[in-house]
Amino acid sequence: MQYVNLGRSGLKVSRLCLGCMSYGEPERLPQPWSLDESASRPLIRQALEAGQKRRIDVAPQFLADKKIVQSDNTINNFVIVDVKSEFGQAFRHVVLPEMAQSIKLEEGVLAMYAAIDKANPNRWYFYEIYASEEAYQAHRITPHFKEYIEQTAEMTTYKKAIAIKPGLLMNKGGLKYEIE
């Protein structure tokens, strides 16, 4: 497995990939929910059969979360946004503070992760986790989210949101990383 530096934190992490922290060697990792190879293979095979055939090499831009234990109400969204090349920096300066405000101010926002595609830096990937549908809808009417939508309306060429229903979702919370 290849490991990369997580920004300037000094941490070495596996490349962002299918499921991130759920796969590995449970006896080596501090997360008791990590799956060993034999338990991971069926999930990886399912992803491949569902069309996840290529790896996306990403550069993390913002990672923040709170403690998450999945319930039937948990909302997970994977969002793809293509930004016009001339607006790359402007988009970054709008979206990153909005994400930081969301995680700080909204109790129901459990995680906000953002990365750019290394092969296409104008493509952004977001993974958002909300405590419930109500928390997601409340997020959509906050002043900082409305401001983000308004300020970036002319900066993007493509947006697609994909609802995700994980088989198992847990973490310890407290992750905070923002690219400088």
Automatic annotation (TrEMBL):
The keyword Oxidoreductase applies. SUPFAM superfamilies: Dimeric alpha+beta barrel, NAD(P)-linked oxidoreductase. Gene3D superfamilies: 3.30.70.100. Keywords: Monooxygenase, Oxidoreductase. Residues 75-164 form the ABM domain. The keyword Methyltransferase does not apply. Pfam families: ABM. It comes from the Bacteria. GO terms for molecular function: monooxygenase activity. PANTHER family: ABM DOMAIN-CONTAINING PROTEIN (PTHR33336:SF3), QUINOL MONOOXYGENASE YGIN-RELATED (PTHR33336). This is Antibiotic biosynthesis monooxygenase. It comes from Rahnella sp. (strain Y9602).
